Fold this protein.
Amino acid sequence: MKRLISPALIGLLFAVSNLNASEASMQKEIEQLKAQMQELKKAQTKMNISALRNELSEVKAHDGHDNIKWGVDFRTDYDFVNYKRANGENQSNGIFTNRLWLKMAFAPNDNLAFFGTLAYYKTYGQSLGAKSPGFNYFDWVVNETANPSDELRVKEAYWLYRNNTFLGSQIPWTASIGRRPATDGLLVNYREDQKAKSPLGHLINMEFDGASFAWQLENVTNVSGMYFKVCMGRGMSNVEPRFYGITQNTTGTGGNYFVDPNATAYTKVSGRSTSDLAGFIFKPYDDGQYSVHTMWLKAFNLPGMIKAGTSGGKQTYDFDQTGDMTGGALSVITDGVGEGTSDFLFNTILFASVAYTKTHPNGHDMLGSPNSQTGTSIYVGANFPAEIINNATVGLEYNHGSKYWRSFTYSEDTLIGSKLAARGDAYEFWLNKDLMGKKFTAQLRYTYINYNYTGSNAFFGDGGTPMTMNEAKAKGMNPVSKAQDIRLYLRYRY
């Protein structure tokens, strides 16, 4: 028994000895921690806690609000275009293009925001031809024209101010200035598979710089969705460039340039005025299902090709200002057919729109006429679910333009030209399919235009003179009488 107890006692004494040593070590560490805490307290009393809190708040604000949010819209297209000329000749081609939109948004507070879009639209490979004297890069269409080079340009850049009261009244309003979101407006947006932008697409679909001011009137009128918007834009400026006094010498003798010592930068161009546009958009009713939209505009000092003479038996032209034009549109939309109907009808959109334009010549012919001329257009369409294909919609559209119809739809996204500008009949079918929600989509589209008159896609001068196909052939011309575009695209958006 003694032999068993002795080792146990020895172990117990050893453990107690170690415990005493551990307690001493722990006590030492506690004393060191107390000393460190005292040092931290001293340092804390020297800190500006308020300033530190402000800095943290600024960092949080920057991460949450004070930086530009970026988005991507990238589309790859294949278009097969075909033209039939007045003499029966056919021309066709298959074109691959890439279109990239880099979208920007920034809102420092609830009242003010910035929006922008950088655009790139390129045909695959380098172009073999270079006949256009720069009109491919005309300001109204530069971002909607597929070009062979890889420029990245500003498509949209504008600030938007919004407030829930106007001069003390309960009228929400907005004000905006910059490079306007003026393409792919209402009605056109269904085909383009995106939210509608500012103007009615039946009459305006082109880029310009300007301003807008809008007021939501339903709070004071008790009419659902009533809305009024004033729009102003500038399409051409009468500003001389900085080095306009240096011009090329085309005489073939002497040096390469002429230098005008009396030239002054940014002065008015002699004999030219600005090309401006002003108008309004008025929505008298919108309950979410049924809506009515109207628009009226006046455009000043519009440009066009003016007959100048002949050279080598061919007509020559100058690019000049021709006069003013007024126009208007009325559109009616049913977003869902009937009450308590089937899912198919509930998700069906029907629309109809009528529009007119009227020229006011200033001494030059407008659309080939010295007198004021009125043109009209109708535009109808249906957008409904594709019953046999999941997550897909189908669109059918038709429009007709009269002899002197002239729309501002130069940026319409169709390689064969604007169907809404057609002086004749246009038919369109499209299928939009969500592959991975709205992040990855596809479209198949067919556009057919039958021209009754020439000049549909020209500007406002003699180049826009309407002639029947027989009249044009009698003058030795061979214009396009029919045009087709089959498009297939894949599109990524994030």
Remarks:
- Residues 2-46 form the longest helix (45 residues).
- The chain has six helices and 20 strands.
- The domain at 70-238+273-493 is CATH 2.40.160.10 (Porin).
